[in-house]
Specification:
This is FMN reductase. Pfam families: FMN_red (PF03358). Keywords: Flavoprotein, FMN, Oxidoreductase. By secondary structure, the chain is of the alpha/beta class. It has a single domain, classed as Flavodoxin domain (Rossmann fold), CATH 3.40.50. It has seven helices and seven strands. Strands 1, 2, 3, 4, 5, 6 and 7 form a seven-stranded mixed beta sheet that branches. The termini are far apart.
């Protein structure tokens, strides 16, 4: 089982990468999946060149293929101006819009304040719904204060949210039907191809 983690943090170290690592480890413990982390910061120029030329270079193509072929995906972005980062959106713009169909996805985000936590629901979840992915019910947001590990009477801790989201993704991964690869060598007779084009 292969799990790909896409993180769009721009700094090093990055709170987005830290959250992504914690989510990935929680899912790995439940599924023993092989985990690969993709830092979009390292692909920023490749993504920009793809927009200019219309073609992905070898490095970007390999990452897109890894994301497409993975059994599950964890996607984490910092929140800028109330939404996902431009780099995060640009990467998923160059992924074919049918490539994630039916793929289980866990979404996460980081930000300086808890006030931006709804960006997961009004920005990230609709993006992956448009891409036809299956997004787990629990999205994980980590504000600056979450890293201190403090709890209060009104919110559960970050660790609890990570565990709940990991349980949901692991459950989807365990019960997901294996992907059927199209038989690219199959020959469709020309008469059958023409019949498919005829109006009823």
């Amino acid at each position: 089982m292969k799990l790909v983690v896409v993180t769009a943090g721009l700094t090093q170290p990055s709170s987005s990468r830290l959250l992504a690592d914690r989510l990935a480890e929680a899912v790995r413990q439940r599924t023993e999946a092989e985990v690969r982390v993709v830092e979009l910061r390292e692909l920023a120029v490749d993504v920009a060149n793809n927009f200019v030329t219309g073609f992905a270079n070898a490095r970007l193509s390999e990452v897109i293929e890894a994301v497409t072929e993975a059994d599950g995906l964890i996607a984490v972005t910092p929140i800028f101006s109330g939404s996902y980062s431009g780099l995060f959106k640009s990467f998923f713009d160059v992924v074919d819009n049918t490539a994630l169909t039916g793929k289980p996805v866990l979404i996460g985000a980081t930000g300086g304040t808890a006030r931006h936590s709804l960006a997961l629901e009004h920005a990230l979840r609709p993006l992956f719904t448009y891409l036809r992915a299956v997004v787990v019910p629990t999205a994980v947001y980590a504000a600056s204060e979450d890293w201190g590990g403090g709890r209060d009477a009104f919110t559960d801790g970050l660790g609890d949210r990570i565990a709940r989201a990991a349980d949901e993704l692991a459950d989807l991964l365990r019960h997901r039907a294996p992907r059927q690869r199209p038989d690219e060598d199959a020959v469709v007779p020309f008469a059958d191809q023409l019949a498919a084009l005829r109006p009823e």
